[in-house]
Amino acid sequence: MAEPGGGRPVTVSDVQQLVRRKDEIEAQIKACYELLEGQKGVGMHEPLVDAEGFPRSDIDLYQVRTARHNIICLQNDHKAVMKQVEEALHKLHAREKEKHAKDEAEALAEAQSQSQSLPQAFAKVNSVSPGSPASVSGLQVDDEIVEFGSVNANNFQNLQNIATVVQHSEGRPLSVTVIRGGRRVHVGLTPKRWAGKGLLG
């Protein structure tokens, strides 16, 4: 029997087909053995001649010989099919493993490219006062600031830089970019006077 599918990858249905073929062969072998049983219980090795060396007259010699021959051929076929089933399952399993490894590698590559494309943060939000301009804008604790108006990782020296930008931007929206949960998030923040301290909170 030819290799299932020739050059194409083995599929589950190929394996099912081989298993069906194996079942068919087993059924045929069983039928042949039953036929031998029906011939006075002659098995595969009992002599087909009587004590004087004459062909036995109590059984159908032709049927017995044919059944024996078929059993030998079918057992060889069975062995070959079992080998094919084993190989097909092995290939199927190897392909699943390969696919799983490829998916994992792709996910890892994607995660790496995302983290590489994230800009450098220069400050982290420690607290946000409820009702403050920072809170209203949607800033959250643990947000990592990568851009605060004109300030970014390249020109940031100390928090005074941010304070200066805030004082010059009172009442005007500032573009703030943060990294939150591994993703870049833009926040529109307008520094202004409120019930608490400072212009941000």
From TrEMBL:
<dbReference type="InterPro" id="IPR001478">
    <property type="entry name" value="PDZ"/>
</dbReference>
<dbReference type="Pfam" id="PF17820">
    <property type="entry name" value="PDZ_6"/>
</dbReference>
<comment type="similarity">
    <text>Belongs to the proteasome subunit p27 family.</text>
</comment>
<protein>
    <recommendedName>
        <fullName>26S proteasome non-ATPase regulatory subunit 9</fullName>
    </recommendedName>
</protein>
<dbReference type="GO" id="GO:0070682">
    <property type="term" value="P:proteasome regulatory particle assembly"/>
</dbReference>
<feature type="domain" description="PDZ">
    <location>
        <begin position="107"/>
        <end position="182"/>
    </location>
</feature>
<dbReference type="GO" id="GO:0005634">
    <property type="term" value="C:nucleus"/>
</dbReference>
<dbReference type="InterPro" id="IPR035269">
    <property type="entry name" value="PSMD9"/>
</dbReference>
<dbReference type="Pfam" id="PF18265">
    <property type="entry name" value="Nas2_N"/>
</dbReference>
<keyword id="KW-0143">Chaperone</keyword>
<dbReference type="InterPro" id="IPR036034">
    <property type="entry name" value="PDZ_sf"/>
</dbReference>
<comment type="subunit">
    <text>Interacts with PSMC3. Part of a transient complex (modulator) containing PSMD9, PSMC6 and PSMC3 formed during the assembly of the 26S proteasome.</text>
</comment>
<feature type="compositionally biased region" description="Basic and acidic residues">
    <location>
        <begin position="96"/>
        <end position="105"/>
    </location>
</feature>
<feature type="region of interest" description="Disordered">
    <location>
        <begin position="96"/>
        <end position="115"/>
    </location>
</feature>
<comment type="function">
    <text>Acts as a chaperone during the assembly of the 26S proteasome, specifically of the base subcomplex of the PA700/19S regulatory complex (RC). During the base subcomplex assembly is part of an intermediate PSMD9:PSMC6:PSMC3 module, also known as modulator trimer complex; PSMD9 is released during the further base assembly process.</text>
</comment>
<dbReference type="InterPro" id="IPR040815">
    <property type="entry name" value="Nas2_N"/>
</dbReference>
<dbReference type="InterPro" id="IPR041489">
    <property type="entry name" value="PDZ_6"/>
</dbReference>
<dbReference type="GO" id="GO:0005737">
    <property type="term" value="C:cytoplasm"/>
</dbReference>
